């Protein structure tokens, strides 16, 4: 049975429905005896770009996977525009929401993964149109036209008929971005999208994402070790350690005058010489 505090948080989330695109209420995630996230509460407003930073293993990627319903909540609630994503509170009990509701909310969320996750047996074009046609019910002709437009946007207009195996890592990631955008997501989750790429192509991928941030109102939840990118595109940066939010604030504040000693140590290790363009290849 929910605790009084949990019930209060859930009631507040219901009252504030529509105020936030993503809301975490008393979220807990365990893998066996390992508690990865506990009593996690935070919100992401509509159109806001929030970046999660912190050491490997701090729970950042798990947060994205919970929003994408690739992992199951151990406790607590996640709301999308005030609607419970996987669990709701009814008659004082925490109960799963219908799978149909989960799938409906999922169509509003796109994710770009570290390892691209393209279908190897499909061409680039087929990868991009698969979900719009079969999940959203978009007419195939319209989906194809949109896919070509997106390939133009990510700089791969001549790769529609190629298979992923013939593309470089940077090209595959750009296709993955186009595939995510083809669903017209209201929320875009970015999970270390440059960690598997050669350093010389990282800038190309980040520039595409900067353009998406600059030209759309899509809500973004980002996990990255690219501190320069985080500082450029974020409205808010959250420092995580051991499944908890250590510190959060405007990127200028976090990167120039962090208050918490853990944040200072992490940024010193990641940035090294102090340059916001320094990067690491570790992942969550």
In words, what does this structure look like?
The protein has 284 residues and is an alpha/beta fold. The chain has a domain at 115-184. Helices cover 38% and strands 24% of the residues. The chain contains ten helices and twelve strands. The strands form three sheets. Strands 8-9-10-3-11-12 form a six-stranded mixed sheet, sandwiched between helices. Strands 2-1-4-5 form a four-stranded antiparallel sheet. The chain has a two-stranded antiparallel sheet with strand order 6-7. Strand 9, helix 7 and strand 10 (219-223) form a beta-alpha-beta unit. Helix 4 (124-134) packs across helix 5 (140-153) and helix 5 (140-153) crosses helix 6 (169-181). The longest helix has 17 residues, at 199-215. Residues 1-18 and 274-284 have low confidence and may be disordered.
Descriptors:
single chain, 284 residues, alpha/beta, 6-stranded mixed beta sheet, 10 helices, 12 strands, 24% strand, disordered C terminus, ABC-type amino acid transporter activity, amino-acid transport, Putative amino-acid ABC transporter ATP-binding protein y4tH, cell membrane, ABC_transporter-like_ATP-bd
